[in-house]
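Annex B. Sample input.
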Amino acid sequence: MFEWLRDILGDGYSEDIDRKVSAAIGKAFVSRSDFNAVKRNLSAAKQEIADRDAEIAGLHAAVREAAVLRQTVTELHTQLDRISRTAAVQEQLTALGVTDPEYVIYKIGGIEKFSFDKDGRPEKMEDLIAPLKKTAPHLFTSTAQMYPSAGGATVSAAQTGRYRVTGLYLLAASVTLLVSSVAQLHARKHSMCA
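Annex B, continued. Sample output.
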C-alpha cells in the first residue's frame, strides 16, 4: 500500500508494518483528497451563510420600510377621513344656506364637533347651526345672495360653497389615489421579500 515506505525500510518492510502505519496515519491524519473536499464544503457553507446574511439584512430593511409605509398609509387614511368629513359638512352647510361653511365650522368648534352616521354623513346639523342663525344671521341666506365673479357673472353664495366642496372632493380623491398607490407599492415590496 505504501510503496514509499517499502523504499525507505527496504528488507525491514512487512505487510504487518504496512497495516500498523496505515492505521496510525488514519487516526492522526486526513488524506489530501478528503482535506480538499472538506475545504470546498467549508467554503461553500461560508458563502451560503454570507448570502443568507445579505438576504436577512435585505428583509430587515424591507420590514423597516414596510413599517414606514404602514404609518404613511395610516396617516393618509386619517387625512382622507378628515377631508371627506369636512367636505360632507361643508356641502350640508351650503345646502342649509350657509354662505361661508369654513367659517361656520370654525365658529362651531371644528369638524370634531359634528356627528356623523356610519356612512360618514353629517347628522343633526340644524341643531348645531341654530344658535348661529340667531347670533350671526349674516352667515346665512334665505334668498340666493349674488356675488360678482371674476368673469363679471354673478354667483350665488350656495354655488360658491359648492365650488369649495367640489374642490375638497377632488382633494379627497387625490389622497385616495395616493393611499392606493402606497398600498400597492407596499404589497409589491412585501411580495418581493417573500
